[in-house]
Please model this.
Amino acid sequence: MSYFYYFLVFVFGLMVGSFLNAWIWRTRENLSIVSGRSMCPRCRKQILWYDNIPLISCFLLKRKCRHCQEKISWQYPAVELAMGILFLLVAYLRKGENTFVTLEMLRDLGIVFFLVFIFIYDLKYKEILDMAVLPLTIIVYLASVAENWQTWQSMIIGAAIGAGFFFVQFFISNGKWIGGGDIRLGLLMGVILSWPNIIVGLILAYVLGAVISLTQVVLKKKNLESETPFGTYLTVATFIVMFWGDQIVGWYLGLLN
Model:
């Protein structure tokens, strides 16, 4: 039963990943996500249902649109597979002993969905959208208070640190170092991670950013003046600290001792 359960979660993640790809593209094209059938982003022709099966259709079509024969971006199967794996991981970490679905699991699945949206959108377009950040911030805050997942005080402190940290940089640099989207994403991080794990999340984001950016410089993929979509590092750090923040803190304190 457990294997079948995890298989269903994985398939559900693949389907959510397919929807996420469509939402990202439709958002960029100013198209409604609730109207109209799936279409090829190149020729705009409707995709038949059997050409829209996550992963499988892309493989059978050899990454080409049936109509225009244009290559399908690697983003589509990659996001679908990533969502399947991430949903599987969340289910494994959050599944209750006597129930297959818990409120914490549903919360984290929703957070992961929006974090991946923010990650992909910032990576591709270097923009963090309020529509993906602010509603989630409010929902997570209210749900956490209602279910006693976090204290409102710890979330307020976390949000103030997360948003304030980036606001100071924005103010000092007159918007040259970071954008306003990073401030709002810092607010979301503070609500999700709360105090004191928001500190861990910020430090981890900068460590990831430094390692990846320096690696790209060494490989001559970019130079030191290249623009970096920092929201990608913030979302990855948020995900890691959501599940392993306490262990990271414990490991660090162990080093000090």
Notes: The chain has nine helices and no strands. The chain has two domains: 1-101, 115-257.
